[in-house]
Specification:
The protein has 14 helices and seven strands. The strands form two sheets. Strands 4-1-5-6-7 form a five-stranded mixed β-sheet, sandwiched between helices. A two-stranded antiparallel sheet has the order 2-3. It has about 400 residues and is α/β, with parallel strands linked by helices. The chain starts with 6 loop residues before the first helix and ends with a helix. Keywords: Membrane, Transmembrane, Transmembrane helix.
């Protein structure tokens, strides 16, 4: 029982609990309990009202628009757009995760179900898999459920009207009433085979972060050895960015080759993916190396924690995150700009589709390059100087 009397035992217990709190917040706090909310989806209503035999009119599209936009229980944030072309352009620009297209003949098609030649209309649900697989799944599921409710409501209404007009309902009409409105699903910006169901950008980002961190650590230690060998601090640090850029370029190319050759990852934009990963690796390296040269080995704790807090968020749509995770971590972590940029490169058409994420990475690389070089002017601590000074004073 003597071990229980040692302070280190109780201090160690506190440290263990603190580690669990920190890493629990990093690995669980950001993702547990997340749910979709305000997922941006375009709504295109082209439907034209149809005239009924009894003199009335039928406007199914307007009815759907009213019900869908008024339903606050749906985790959807609707944006009304005027055409299918505009909706698809918004999806291509990552403004929407999907769209619901209501055609011009919707009402006339529904009205035809009460006649001898029913022609069931169809609406189109578009989901962008490349933007985020989870969000695309939510779009399909939620809109599919909404259309099932609309179908049930329309079927009951049509049966009631047809029951008033005739004692018997034609077989063709009865069959059509089982599903008055057909639903067609379309997936755009597909993620391809062996892309971890769309999570490949996040995985590549994490691996590149670790590769850059190892590079930064090796060159930091090499620089320390060079200074012990007589090289000036500035010269030892000035060469680190050059070597680091070369190594991250080779590493990023190897990572892309390994993902496609070893694991069969389908990469339609392999060269562009490599070039963007090279930029990401260089930005990561500059950040990591600058912190190591200014702070020293303790900077590793900051960099490891940054990775652990960022990892769970990389493959999630921001609309799924809590406001704390979204504003305090996701909005600024460097890994996020790489993961989102990789989605643009891999699934939206290569480097020509990269938005502001590339600009942010260039800014990070440039700013931390300056800090890295500036660390070369920091006064180096000379081993044994303190001991010698103390002996002289004695």
């Amino acid at each position: 029982m003597a071990i229980l009397k040692q302070k280190i035992t109780w201090l160690g217990t506190v440290i263990v609990l603190a580690v669990l709190v920190v890493f629990g917040a990093a690995m669980m706090g950001s993702v547990l309990g997340t749910k979709p909310k305000d997922v941006p989806v375009a709504l295109v209503v082209l439907d034209q009202p149809a005239n009924l035999p009894n003199g009335g009119s039928l406007a199914v599209g307007e009815m759907m628009k009213t019900k869908l936009t008024a339903n606050k229980a749906m985790p959807i944030s609707w944006t009304i757009v005027g055409s299918e072309k505009e909706a698809r352009a918004g999806i291509d620009d990552r403004e929407f995760y999907g769209a619901l297209i209501v055609p011009t003949e919707l009402s006339s098609g529904v009205a035809s179900l009460m006649g001898p030649e029913p022609k069931p209309p169809a609406v189109n649900i578009i989901a962008s898999e490349g933007s985020n697989t989870q969000a695309a799944t939510v779009v399909k599921q939620v809109l599919g459920q909404a259309m099932s409710m609309v179908n049930a409501e329309m079927a009951n209404s049509l049966l009631e009207q047809m029951g008033k007009q005739a004692d018997q309902v034609p077989i063709s009409a009865a069959q059509a009433l089982l599903s008055p409105i057909h639903v067609q699903e379309e997936t755009v910006h597909a993620v391809g085979a062996n892309n971890a169901t769309g999570n490949a950008p996040g995985l590549l980002t994490q691996i590149m972060w670790m590769g850059s961190l190892v590079t930064a650590m090796i060159l930091f230690l090499a620089g320390g050895s060079a200074m012990k060998g007589g090289a000036s601090r500035l010269s030892a640090i000035a060469v680190q960015p050059v070597v680091g850029i070369v190594i991250t370029g080779v590493a990023s190319g190897f990572l892309v080759w390994m993902a496609s050759s070893w694991y069969g990852m389908e990469l339609s934009q392999a060269t562009d993916t490599w070039l963007f990963l090279w930029l990401a690796g260089a930005a990561f390296y500059m950040l990591q190396s600058a912190l190591l040269n200014w702070i020293g080995i303790p900077a590793m704790a900051i960099l490891v924690l940054l990775m652990f807090f960022s990892m769970p968020l990389l493959n999630m749509a921001p609309e799924f995150l809590s406001s704390v995770s979204r504003n305090w971590i996701y909005s600024w972590t460097p890994l996020k700009f790489v993961a989102v940029g990789l989605r643009e490169v891999m699934y939206f058409g290569g480097l020509n589709s990269v938005g502001s994420n590339a600009t942010v990475l260039w800014s990070i690389a440039g700013a931390f390059l300056v800090l890295l070089v500036a660390s070369g002017f920091k006064k180096a601590r000379i081993p044994g100087a303190v001991t010698a000074a103390a002996s002289a004073n004695a």
